[in-house]
Amino acid sequence: MSFQLFGLPVSRGIAIGRAVLVASSRLDVAHYYVAGEDVDAEIDRLRSARNAVARELTTMKRDLPAEAPAELSALLDVHLMLLHDDTLTGAAKQWIRERHYNAEWALSAQLEVLARQFDEMEDEYLRERKADLEQVVERLLGVLARGADGPSALASHAVAPEQSGDDPLVLVAADISPADMLQFKGGVFLGFVTDVGGKTSHTAIVARSMDIPAVVGAREASRLIRQDDWVIIDGDAGVVIVDPTAAVIEEYRAVKRKRETGRARLARLRHLPAVTRDGERVELLANIEQPGDAAAALAAGAVGVGLFRSEFLFLNRDGELPGEDEQFEAYRTAVQAMRGRPVTIRTVDVGADKELDRMSANELRHEHALNPALGLRAIRWSLSEPAMFRQQLRAILRAAAHGRVRILLPMVGQLSEVRQTLDALARARQQLDDAGRPYGPVELGAMIEVPAAALVLPTFLRYFDFVSIGTNDLIQYTLAIDRADEAVAHLYDPWHPAVLQLIAQTVGCATRLRKDVSVCGEMAGDPAFTEILLGMGLRSFSMHPSQILAIKERVLGTDASRWASALEQILSADDPEREVAALAAEIAAPRGGPLVAAASAL
Ligand code: PEP
Ligand code: MG
After folding, report:
1. Which helix (H) or strand (E) holds 173?
2. Chain segment 336-347, per-residue pLDDT in tens
3. What is the pTM of this model?
4. Catalytic status, residue 509
5. Catalytic (active site) residue 202
């Protein structure tokens, strides 16, 4: 009977194949006491297993193929470090010596102790390192089970699947270590599903960089899926379909072919500069939420980060907000990962739909506000918490010593807010000077997401180096539609002429005054708006990394001057969306044009 499982989509694509189940060696660990005279021999058994695993990992590291992702070597180092850590194998020896546990039992007992410590860690990234520890223990248990010289269970599957004939295979397991994944790169497994794992688990990171469709955290998958079951893994949706009907398999095959053709076509654009048909250069930047997202930004060909939503460092913190040093590390990591490209860090934008766990007096007032979207949000919140604001500014200034950094202020609407921010920035610099801490130069920018800011832009621009249009909020505040309220969602309309006119005015005014202007709201990553935004004169778009290539394709096929000359007509139309569709049909050249054709030939 066909059924579906849901997990986290961590690596894109669709894989269809028969399940190969890899049992967790931890599940069937033997538990027995060793006699007093055998304790030393049992410790030797553990030591030999540790040495065998160390050899396995070192060989794997040495033999990494040139195309293996850079993270993999670092991951193998982490596993080697955990393997030799006294709190794992050293402590397991103690269990053998003091309690006479057999080596497998001693290892799993110590794993339980350490796993609990990991579970209590506040930092999500560190918490997820528990998976690495478990994988090292799995490896040790595997060696103990088959003896130091036997082949690894995965290696034998990866090379010679005997039971399945010519059918494609997908791997189903409680968990898979990144090192084991390497063994089936280019091998027989087309995708994988695991019971555990988070978005930042190393296994997920490696799957993404290897481009293998994967769903992790599918909880009971390894229990519910049977050996040889047909399985569809949809790595875009995080869905696993077990025992699908022939019709469903056919449907997914068609979707897979279509997605693959689309992705292959777009991937060829990765190294092309984004230039319109009439030769206008366009900057495509990434929106990120965590420093780790910088890798995806680079992989997609982003030329910088146009929006780092720093508030994500402050959410789900269970009371404790990140201090200056923790923030500095996060910003510096992103800045260094972008290798000289600019990183625009937006100061914390909490409030409305992004609530902090920690409730200060101000936030408590805010919580009872009648309409949080119009309340103490974003820069208003930061200015009401001056010590916290300066702390964030100091962290950003310090990160600026490591690369090109720009500060972006959310939801500014008043000149008084601009002045207070400049004061806070001056004080933050002074504090760093007093403490003798190095910091770097920053450019200062404002988000244009409140109509008031768009209307007084010439005044604002005296104080700012650049502006970035936050269309998500600009639509909400222009049309008086709470973007989180489903009851009025049908009125939330990016095509509303008032919204388009405010964007066009902002782009035009900033360009005339020779200040950089970009759009970082969702409209920047929606190909439906690329042509009209180019027609307004916009040359900088910031979006989720997954959208960059689709927008680049649109840019390459657009004649910006043609759309510029049609701009007035579009802005004054009753229905700009229909007007744009009619114009697009009228502009005879096929989408893509000669540059895309040239790229396709690459
Ligand atoms: C916006 O408002 O368009 C924006 C980019 O900011 P956020 O979506 O984080 O409010
Ligand atoms: Mg916003």
Report:
1. strand 169-173
2. 999 999 999 999
3. 0.64
4. no
5. yes
